[in-house]
Design goal:
One of its GO terms (molecular function) is sequence-specific DNA binding. This protein is α+β, with helices and mostly antiparallel strands. It folds into 2 domains: about 180 residues, Jelly Rolls, CATH 2.60.120; about 110 residues, Orthogonal Bundle (Arc Repressor Mutant, subunit A). It is about 50% helix and about 10% strand. The strands form 2 sheets. Strands 2-7-4-5-8 form a 5-stranded antiparallel β-sheet. It has a 3-stranded mixed β-sheet with strand order 1-3-6.
Length: about 300
């Protein structure tokens, strides 16, 4: 595999790479996969885009996107945020009749309400194998929104163009948010297995002494252990348990801290270090946030 990362900074750069005509707008484009003619062999290469990228595929032969028996098989959407690295593989866009891609630069939405909440769409940080699998009805709705964006994109640009394009992008993302919630719901039996495995990993990390040795594990650490992105694992836990992964870890640490405070005479600083905190004051601050009292107050009152 090549270690080189090819940076595709602009929408125009993407059009050149895909063998498409120059974009009609410098910050956004809709392209159809049947029209692409790649200008290089993508196999083994890594790319980082400087813009948001959404790709709908109706090809059912590519298994890289993580579809399982719980999912719809009428189409797949994948999402990329600026700077995220992807390996496209050797599948050909021009074989994907009906597929489309939406590319939009952060500058397009920077001054809009969407720019303020774009990071709330956490699926932009999912891995390729955590794609969204949609039904025929959902395909029609999302493709209809893509066609509205395309219509605005191909008309002469006026003072309304950008607002209408951004509004339709936001609506498309809101529907994708709904459909991801549905996908989490239909996968609940599978997801419960992952929750159990995560809880065991967290407990094993604690009992093996790795908290004191390596510090508090990150969201990405648990994602890697379960072969998924940290963002996807955190969202899955939130749907199944009501807690994000970070909150789950913090609650676990505080519950164990309570046991250690009441079950030993160890100094607060020693307890903090044993739970993976680099600085005892960070432990005390989190403990007070969770319990309403400092570790010393909790120990004295109990």
């Amino acid at each position: 595999m090549s270690s080189e990362i090819i940076h595709v900074k602009s929408v125009a750069d993407y059009h050149r790479l895909a063998g498409l005509e120059s974009p009609r707008h410098p910050l956004v484009s809709i392209s159809y996969h049947k029209d692409t003619r790649a200008t290089m062999d993508f196999e083994g290469k890594r790319f980082a885009f400087g813009f948001y990228y959404i790709s709908y595929k109706n090809a059912k032969y590519d298994m890289r996107y993580g579809r399982n028996s719980y999912d719809f098989d009428d189409g797949t959407l994948m999402f990329m945020s600026p700077g995220q690295i992807i390996m496209p593989g050797n599948s050909s866009h021009d074989e994907d009749d009906g597929g489309w891609s939406l590319a939009f630069h952060p500058d397009l939405i920077r001054k809009s309400p969407l720019g303020k909440k774009i990071h709330d769409y956490s699926f932009f940080s999912y891995d390729v194998h955590e794609a969204l699998h949609i039904s025929e009805t959902e395909v029609k709705l999302l493709t209809g929104l893509a066609e509205k964006i395309d219509m605005e994109y191909r008309q002469n640009i006026d003072q309304h163009t950008q607002n209408l394009i951004v509004s339709n992008i936001e609506l498309l993302l809101d529907y994708c948010n709904r459909y991801y919630d549905r996908q989490f719901y239909t996968r609940t039996n599978l997801n419960k297995d992952y929750v159990t495995r995560f809880e065991q990993l967290l407990q094993d990390y604690y009992t093996s002494g790795q908290l004191a040795e390596k510090g508090i594990p990150t969201v990405n650490y648990f994602g890697e252990q379960l072969n998924m992105s940290g963002h996807y694992l955190s969202d899955m836990l939130k749907k199944e348990t009501g807690k994000s992964l970070k909150k789950y870890i913090n609650d676990f640490l505080i519950n164990n801290a309570k046991t250690m405070l009441l079950g030993s005479a160890s100094p607060v600083s020693q307890i903090a270090y044993s739970l993976g905190f680099e600085y005892p004051q960070h432990f005390s601050k989190l403990f007070k946030q969770k319990t309403g009292m400092s570790p010393v107050e909790y120990r004295s009152l109990n």
